[in-house]
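Technical note accompanying the year-one report. For the benefit of new consortium partners, we illustrate the data format agreed upon in the data management plan: each record pairs a sequence with a structure-token string. No post-processing was applied to the example shown here.
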Amino acid sequence: MSDEEELDPRENPAHPRYQFDLTGHRQAEQKLLEAYQSGRFHHAWMLCGPQGIGKATLAYRLARFILNHPDYKSDNVAKATDLAVAEDNAVAHRIAARAHSDLFVLQRELNPKTKKLRPATSVDDARKLGHFYTMTAGEGGWRVCIIDAADDLNAAAANAILKILEEPPEKCLFIIVSHAPGRLLPTIRSRCLRLDMTPLSDEEVGAVVGHGLLDPQLSEQEIAALIQLGGGSPGKVLQLVTSQGARQFIRFQQMVSAPQGFSMSAQIAIAEEFQKRGAEIEFNIFADLLSTWIGRNASVAAEQSMSARANALAICHSEFSDSIRATNALNLDRRQTLMMVFDNIEKILRQ
């Protein structure tokens, strides 16, 4: 496989359909369970919150439970205290194999020519969902659709979904994952019950990604730093574990807080890492982390009534965001872009 290809995310062992444990989000899980037990279960739920915190894991957990217990009046449902289904359960096996006839997952697909993920979920894929809901449930219970994520729908696909939401078939369920619900069509949001999910604590993130961090090259300090960078998102931490951009950002944090200051040699060493061929993705990871760092420090300065520093950092943040867009769009010198912002940061911190 070439460096430009992307692995199909559905084949990743860390994919949510393989995850049977849910860390955190107890309140959200209980709300779904109690709604189902009541017999007044809404046909569309929107799970909202930052990317990578477990929304899709909860979506698959709910789908397994509903498809395994299609009758809400059953004793198993009445006695349930959570949405857990055993890993050796037949329904769970079919869902893991993407072979359950009553579950449809709408997500970005791979382009067969480029072997890369398409930039958006197309209207053709959304129309397949319409066909899915015209069929009788293969196992006589619910028909469930997971949309992961609604943020990936293009305009035509979103309108196709809206038509189904407006006139939902009997015993159908939409479980819609959204990282930024404010960007979705208001008419889609209005037809869903919104369930907000919050980032996990650092301890919970560590519990979720512990196995993924068993890298002998990572020190305990680096692991702690990566978890902190994740901002409560296990998914983001797992992405950062193998990221050179994240490693260099940790290095930046160490250098910029060193007693001797952020030396020119340290600035050059970090910037050089992203001038290498094929470093575009890592450059953008580093730039995103750095942009967040600048914005956070601007807020801290404002809270401490350090108005001059706060204003300078706010301007730095805006200028850096513009520089990143221009660098990516025009294929400018990434090293020079970083050296400029490093110089600006060093001047601000010295003032």
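Partners are asked to follow this layout when depositing records. The domain at 9-196 is CATH 3.40.50.300 (Rossmann fold).
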